[in-house]
User: Fold this.
Amino acid sequence: MIYQGTSLSVQLLEGGIIELKFDAQGSVNKFDKETFIELEMALKAINESTEAKGVLITSAKSTYIVGADIKEFLNTFKKPHKELMFWVKQSTDMFNRIEDLQLPTIAVINGIALGGGCELSLACDYRLADTNVSIGLPEVKLGIMPGFGGTVRLPRIIGADNAIEWMSTGKAHNADSALAVGVLDAVVAPENLMTAAINMLKDAIAGKLDWRAKRQPKLEALALSATESLMTFSTCRGMIAAKAGKHYPAPMIMLDTLEASANLDRDGALALENKAFVKLSQTDSATAQIGLFLADQVVKGKAKKAAKQAKTINKAAVLGAGIMGGGIAYQSAYKGTPIIMKDINDSALDLGLNTAAELLTTQVERGRMDIKTMATTLNNITPSLTYKSVGGVDIVVEAVVENPKIKGMVLAEVENSVSENTILTSNTSTISINLLANSIKRPEHFCGMHFFNPVNKMPLVEVIRGSKTSDETVATVVAYAAKMGKSPIVVNDCPGFYVNRVLFPYLAALSHLVLEGGDFAEIDKVMEKEFGWPMGPAYLLDVVGIDTAEHCTGVMSDGFPTRMKKLDNDPIKLLYKNDRLGQKNAKGFYDHSKDKRGRPNKVASNITYELLAPICTKSTTFSNDDIIARLMIPMINEVVRCLEEGIIDTAAEADMGLVYGLGFPPFRGGAIRYLETIGLHEYIAMADKFAYLGELYQVTDGMREMAKLDQSYFTTSVKTA
Assistant:
């Protein structure tokens, strides 16, 4: 052994072959501070070896290297500019040392090689991978760009246009894709990987492969003519601007950097990459997107922990075969859990089966599924008109009409048809789980399982714990939701649970703005274009359904009679009374239709303006900042209250709930990340300006204390209940 660290080792194999093996103490290899320190010592040992003739860089794990340790990013990126520049240059210098070894080098890639793992392989002369490889540079998804030489080496290996596509989308590529574009030099079966790598390195050592010539282009300027450069960068600039928009600066800054460095050698190009990386790392967008990644890891980690405590779910049932029930049945069957779909009539079952079939057909048409898999999935859905069919299931998802009496009756009926250990859940968006639990004999085996519509697209599932729900029940439902491919968050029972509870203050703020003379279409425009929501509040109400919103408004008003008191002249109520229900009947705040391609189209309705005129004050123009503040303060305040009351456990889950359940702009990272980006003191001052509008705008005493102590919701428990 030439060198032995805790994360990697260097040993001499036969024929002067050196194996630099990554084998971190955790489950995966990643570039953290300790690994960089050890890598420097390992390279020193290789350079000092008199027997070394070539280097294989391998992994002892089931995957190669997953990238940098993202958990270190937020603290690292808070460092002063000069200190951060020094850090990133040290990192790129390390990769240069690999590239500058006076020996041929081969990256022997098994499985995942993303971010820094991919960049390490690019520093090698050759890249040999197994057929399971997943390789790419996903940094833009974190609001940053490759910072260990990726923007310099990748375009010099595969061409600028291909490199820009790889880096600007952040996609991971399979073996065929990476081989075709030239990122990989060869692909072999996993069992042949090491043998093939040794043989390839022997050929390089013997001079059969000209490794020096292979390396040289990475050290020079990009081989682009002036015309090619103009065409490549102008075309890519237009595509990135259209797709990324102004809220995601990373792809465009990455492109600008690549263009500016095209005529420079490696070291000159790396210097520009260092500067751009540091610039991006200190943007609000990067902080938000990195925070979002870490929050997602919290959710996934809790789901993995739940799986260890959960009962096994081999078969499920869904009660109610409408659009929602059909979506739930599809998702369960698609992810491998057979499911009974029970309803009271054949037409409903046909609707549910057709819903599942249409979703599967779309998968086939897009090349994501073959006909055989589609048939298998459909066979995993068994339609039924009787409760007898559900006797052997492990979990039941009740998804009938949103009516407490009907839901209670259905739950009581199905409980008599299943075993004592079967878990019952209700897919409800508003009805108290404790109330529904009164209808059944075993409330410890019952909880809420709130899916979001459309089920196949919305990643969130709220698992609602009732006062008598057992820990095992919660763990099992969380594990089942994760198995279905969803991101589950556990919340405690309260009106609206978590997502709807924090949504309705936001929608109430819209009503107040409209009553004060605000234009709902202009408000939507500001919240979409300036704040970044996928749809503004008025359009969202149309999509959700004005009738649904009217019902939920009543529930929230009953639950929080002072803070969310129902308005007598509420615009939502007015539209509901005039049968303007939104998209479902093509008339709401907007008139809805479809264009020639069948895509949804909307126009602000003159009829709606006429209906609103008598109840609204004279037309008022609000500034963009005031519109954003008026809408967002009630939502943020309610999120904080949910944390303080223990409705949701952590700030990370609170943020993920809004991003995955409502489409909160990812570049803002969620409500709490947005709050802390503004700064607690600054936010409180802003909210206090609007405190006269009522309780929704009044921050909690707990938040004021947090600001006073300069604490973060991500590291401080604020539960008071």
